Amino acid sequence: CGNKEAKDGNKTSDAISIYEKMPGDLALYGLACDGCTDSVLILLPYSGGDPDTFDIINCRQQHRLLGRPHIGDALAVMVNPENRNEAVSVINLGTLEGQWCYMVEPTLRTIDGKVPPLPDSILQKLMVPMEYSLKLNADYSAIATGNMRKSGNNQSLAVYPDIHRYTEWRIFNGRLILHADTIAGFTQKAEEPVTDTADIVFLMRDSLVLRIGDKEQSYYRKKLDEDVRGSQKKIEEDRRR
């Protein structure tokens, strides 16, 4: 009711989210809507307005549909700059969130450049795999755990690899940005903050593969009653499919 022209002239934003992108991020963010199929993605943008429809056939064929979208899932979409109706990459942020784990094998510490000869019984006790994890929270904080040395155990013959103690994560142009805050004392060298850029190679509900530089790392989602080796085998089977 009232003066329609005056009302439209003072129309406020109909944004559905206060999410702020990183400067330079060209991805579109929003929620998956009813009507998504294997070939079409319908996205309600956080900026509000009508849903956008994208062709995702090539995206799926190129294995860039990372996490199957369901109604209400938060998504990050990279659009083809030459065809605004086509998505070249889709990341299901809800699927990406959570605690991801992987197993790490230790190496033997060398003494004077040589590996000390040890009985098999001692080696079996020393060479115990350790579970590392990377937790990505909904508030874009991150927690990386692993290689937590106990006091007085720094000279153990079993050496586990160091990790970056990530504290934040973001999506930037379809890639995962992981940041370790040296101010909080989480990095090995208290010099400058560490930022790693990871390509998401594979993502499903229980499986994740990240590539940082020339190294790929497979993760499984932690479950209380899940066998670790079975989980890693499932990751490789899913990738081959």
Write the layout of secondary structure elements.
Layout: H1 4-9, E1 28-32, E2 40-45, E3 52-55, H2 57-61, E4 65-66, E5 74-80, E6 83-92, H3 93-96, E7 98-104, E8 107-108, H4 120-126, E9 130-136, E10 142-145, E11 158-159, E12 168-172, E13 175-180, E14 194-204, E15 207-212, E16 215-221, H5 228-240
Parallel strand pairs: 4-6
Antiparallel strand pairs: 1-2, 1-5, 2-3, 5-6, 7-9, 7-16, 8-11, 9-10, 12-13, 13-14, 14-15, 15-16
Task: Please state the average pLDDT score.
Answer: 82
Q: How many H/I helices?
A: 5
The strand count comes to 16
Low-confidence stretches: 1-12, 225-229
Largest sheet: 8 strands, antiparallel
For the largest sheet, list the strands in their spatial order. 10-9-7-16-15-14-13-12
Helix content: 10-25%
Beta-strand residue fraction: 35-45%
| Net shape | elongated
Ends distance: 57 Å
Q: Which structural category fits the helices and strands?
A: mainly beta
Rg measurement, Å:
23 Å
- The H/E string reads HEEEHEEEHEEHEEEEEEEEH
Quick structural summary:
This protein is mainly beta and 241 residues long. It contains 5 helices and 16 strands.
